[in-house]
Amino acid sequence: MSNIVEPTRLTKKDFETDQDVRWCPGCGDYSILANVQKVMPELGLPVEQIVWVSGIGCSSRFPYYMNTYGFHTIHGRGPAFATGIKIANPKLSVWLATGDGDGLSIGGNHLMHCLRRNVDVKILLFNNRIYGLTKGQYSPTSEVGKITKSTPSGSADQPVDPACVALGVNGSFVARSVDIEAPHLAEVLRRAAHHTGSAFIEIYQNCNVFNDGAFDSFTEKTHKADRQIRVEHGKPLIFGAQRDRGIRLNTRTLALEVVMLGVNGVTEADLLVHDETNPTLAYMLAHMPYPAFPVALGVLFAEKRPTYDGALAEQRLAAELKQGKGDLDKLLRSGDTWTI
Amino acid sequence: MTQSNLVPSPSPRMVLDSAVVRFAGDSGDGMQVTGDQFTAAAALARNDLATFPDFPAEIRAPAGTLYGVSGFQINFASQDVFTPGDAPDVLVAMNPAALKTNLRDLKRGGLLIVNSGAFSAANLKKAGYEENPLEDGSLTGFNLVSIDITKLTVSAVKELGLSNKEAHRCKNFWTLGLMFWLYGRPLEPTVKWIQNKFHKRDDLVQANIAALKAGHAYGETAEISHNRYEVPAAPVSAGTYRNIGGNTATAWGLLAATQLSGMNMVLGAYPITPASDILHELSKFKHFGVTTVQAEDEIAAVCAAIGASYAGSIGVTTTSGPGLALKMEGIGLAVATELPLVIVDIQRGGPSTGLPTKTEQADLLQAVYGRNSEAPVCVIAASSPGNCFYMAIEAARLALKYMTPVILLTDGYLANGTEPWLIPKLDELPRIEVKFRTDPEGFHPFLRDPQTLARNWAIPGTPGLTHRIGGLEKDYDSGHISYAPANHERMCQTRAAKIAGIANDVPEQQIDVGDDSGKLLVLGWGSTYGAIREAVQRCRARGLPVSHAHVHYLNPLPRNLGELLKRFDRVLVPELNLGQLVKLVRSQYLVPAESFPKVQGHPFKISEIEERIRQMMES
Q1: What is residue B5's predicted lDDT score, i.e. its pLDDT?
Q2: Closest CA to B377 of B294, B307, B317
Q3: Do A85 and B310 touch (CB under 8 A)?
Q4: Rounded to an integer, what distance in angstroms lies between the CA atom of residue B120 and that of residue B129?
Q5: Quick one: how far is CA B390 from the chain centroid?
Q6: What is the pTM of this model?
Q7: Given the DSSP bridges, would you call strands B69-77 and B48-54 parallel, antiparallel or unpaired?
Q8: Residue B446: how many CA atoms within 13 Å on its side-chain side?
């Protein structure tokens, strides 16, 4: 591993495995896989330096289809395995595929701690608002009243928003994209790859078998421009097919509001400009109620911070510099001893 | 208070073979510190010794209550010592509650030192005394020395301007000073310890030293009528010794494993009594290549350790029974992916939260069987505090060699107990060979060593060996996912055979005491070693034909164990559970082994086992 390897330009093909992809035909996961395989060569890393980790669920089959090192673990615990891998070998590029059930239900605890520690792991959460692999029960992101096999009278619980959770636990990079928005997804993946620290991407992913069309109202070509807002750092928050709508902060209520440009004297100068280093704005954007507001996509928040694995590596190094390499014989004979 | 048993004339030292001393007081009285310092003094005097700290789960239980009593017992001797002793010869009781809960154990005629200053009406009531036992004649069967330690301590430190509360807290060192006088121990090591411990507060250094010296001087000047004692050094084999506790020994054994294998280690742990001290200890040794992760829960702790193993480190997790239960799914994944993993379970009383600070051996069946489906792991156990060092190395060796989880069982008694320990040299310990796969030729992740059946270990970062593993069943010949019926059976059989084969790599079962055949074998495992050994020796001294064998390898069991058991007419299995090893040996060897269970949160007394052996011999 210490050998200097000439960087060879890898292609999408280099990241494909010989295993049959076993997702249902038409699943949004295919599109995510294709985009990931497209972006991976741009990392400039040999395949053996990359590890894909996953838990359990449809999304968690992901590592089997990536020609890198891969570890398909147990339900919800992927972030904990990824943490161990990254600590043991900080040189590895560690990626995690998870879903709304794996990451926010059984594994909510581990996701939270991975993000707040800022372990240098890239986390892709495929949010299809349903349990797919167990054949169609509601998930923690399903809307209230969801009728499924386990909730014939409609689900009674309030959903969580994945991006809001990630921001709430102080994640250092939080973004959103959509399975079928290839160029947008690819760009968000690139940004995540170049972020040092935990990068959390919520990907709206259509489950065409158990929750088909869950995101159609803001992803269909015909009206997506009116129902999505693509946020970009330093750019005003404008959306709409005619680019005639925007997001403004009402300073009296401290709430966001949708305004029409040119109506009541509103100009672009009145709109908020996206600042991805502002966690308050990021939370407000992630939390905008739909459909009164558009769905915010893109990098909502990004901040450079020390990583957990980096800090541990520094502590190891500092200990060695200060105390020298560990000497067991010296340790065993430290303190009170007696010789007979 | 009565001073009648204090006379001002000097008395000679009485030479004893051994002595058992128990300190008991409120959980805030500093009894554990007192015990530790008294132990250090015995160790420096080269006595053989064994200790047993016994404290409540509450950090500072309400003062004066029965459930807030904290105790520390030490058995020290000029001969071999195997247990902390059944019954104290000397009991130091710092308040009525300590007297009430401990008096029943004191030998008749034993020395009873009591802090009369704590025998207020309120404290007597909290302890459930209607009359003051120091005055009602109920203690006449003991050699009572009643001293107002509180008052004498406050007076010894009054020059130093401490608060009343701080002055009171020095009384453990006053008591220690008196005990040092009684056994003729030097004060200097404890003086140094105090200087180091309280170096940020000079007034506390002065006060505790003053209290220590005052207690000692009290013995000198107002000498207790009771003989002063001397316990000469124990004859032991040549070498350098130290005193060591089980948790420290376990941590150091794990450190030794890193040096013997040349590997880094990642410990994933979640704080849990009585295992947390291993996390504390290992977190100090980053320069040994050890990284410790205080995980968000027990599950994350084991998963991070497995992740680290996957990436090429020694993954370790330390816990107690409730934590082991939470880790089981993760351990199953390590079984399925055949990754090395060391799990240390410091057993405590259960079920559920149970008795967090008390000892038990009831996780054996959980360790051997407690996972879904056919998920065999190697299970080993330590038998004394010092033995924890060697068993921790053994756990790492077997995990790395066989690519398997290994569960090392110790317990609260071993974890907190101490004994003198002959310090080994690193270069005398066997190296642990670890080979990572680097050759891409013919590689798949589940290629096996034909001897050990261990799969080859290809770690991320190795060119040409990218592969995917996980909890799904894999094809024996390619490592790819497979749901084929015959393949699954073959894989289950292979994983079982791999663990069973470890029996060929570990020592045959020895007889620890006695003949290798006969009327009765007492078969033990884990921390009961000392009590069983001593009981069997005493019975043999009385001519009873009984032997002792102690099992360190519980899954697989030693390859000759079945044959060995059948050479005895009867087999007795004392355990701190309701009969777990006895189930294993009965099911495996069809021998009519008999159970001798105890689940009181306390170790066996020697006399309990001795009595049981005598009953069996008579029946």
Answers
A1: 38
A2: B317
A3: yes
A4: 11
A5: 14
A6: 0.92
A7: antiparallel
A8: 22
- Mean pLDDT, chain A, integer: 96
Supply angle C-alpha B397, B399, B405, rounded to 5.
Answer: 150
Partner residue opposite B468 with nearest CB, options A72, A79, A80: A72
Interval B218-251: pLDDT, tens: 998 876 656 688 898 888 888 999 999 999 999 9
Q: How far apart are CA A207 and CA A246, in angstroms?
A: 31
Using alpha carbons, list the distances in angstroms from residue B528 to B47, B82, B410: 21, 10, 11
Mode of pairing for the β-strands spanning B468-470 and A69-72: parallel
What percentage of chain B exceeds 70 in pLDDT?
97
* pLDDT for the residue B235: 82
Closest residue, chain A, to B190 (C-alpha): A336
Closest CA in chain B for residue A324: B287
**Contact yes or no for A47 and B466 at CB 8 A:** yes
Which residues lie below 8 Å from residue A274, measured CB to CB, with a gap of 6+?
A231, A232, A233, A234, A235, A236, A237, A281, A285
Nearest-angstrom CA–CA distance, B171 and B167: 8
**pLDDT tier, A19 (very low <50, low <70, confident <90, very high otherwise):** confident
Q: Is B469's CB within 8 Å of A328's CB?
A: no
Please say if the pLDDT value at position A312 is more than 70: yes
User: Residue A338 and residue B266: Cβ atoms within 8 Å?
Assistant: no
Is B4's pLDDT higher than 70? no
Query: What's at A146, amino acid-wise?
Result: K
Q: Work out the pLDDT band at A8, boundaries 50, 70, 90.
A: low
Nearest Cα to Cα of residue A98 among A16, A28, A203, A187: A203
